[in-house]
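Example: Preprotein translocase subunit SecE.
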Amino acid sequence: MADPTFEWGGTTDNAAIAADRARMWASFTKASQWGIGAVIVLLVLIYLIWG
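Written out as structure tokens, the predicted fold is:
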């Protein structure tokens, strides 16, 4: 019979998981902002050079 106290991946701390996901989301949004800004600057430069 299966052990009812077994947890996949060991013990987990929900607060640590939530903090890690919040940090990852903040990094993703910051990278997205930089990427969008870089594309806008690139498009403006292309327009000024070849426009």
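The mean pLDDT is 87.
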